[in-house]
Specification:
By secondary structure, this protein is an all-beta fold. The protein contains no helices and ten strands.
């Protein structure tokens, strides 16, 4: 049985979509099977998590490890900073109920490194 499998990884802004196509040439008329999946965590690091995402009221942040002088900044899609605070615990929460609906970037940083993730406000 001849079978060809093609995987294409399409990278969109802030996420990934995977297209998987399988073609079966074993019969007189080839059969094609397509599968489309969305995997937003495919390229996301695990240094911190945000939940729920999307959210209407609260943005919960959980750090993998504690670090001194850790700062959280949240930016809208135009690059305007809408929130800045220091994180002193492994878990913290931000009230987002008054924010406009849209996509935001959540940046966690300290003196050594910086990590950014996407957040959707409903």
């Amino acid at each position: 049985m001849k079978r060809a499998v093609l995987t294409i990884l399409l990278i969109f802004a802030f996420g990934t979509t995977q297209l998987r196509a399988a073609v079966d040439f074993s019969s007189d008329s080839p059969a094609i099977q397509l599968e489309l999946s969305n995997d937003n965590d495919y390229f996301q690091d695990k240094n911190f998590t945000i939940s729920p995402n999307p959210s209407k009221d609260r943005l919960n942040i959980r750090l993998l490890k504690s670090s001194e002088n850790t700062t959280i900044e949240v930016f809208d899609v135009l690059g305007k900073r809408v929130h800045k605070s220091n994180i002193t615990q492994l878990e913290s929460s931000i009230d987002v109920s008054r924010w406009k609906t849209g996509v935001y970037l959540v940046k966690i940083s300290n003196e050594k490194e910086s990590h950014t993730k996407r957040f959707i406000k409903q």
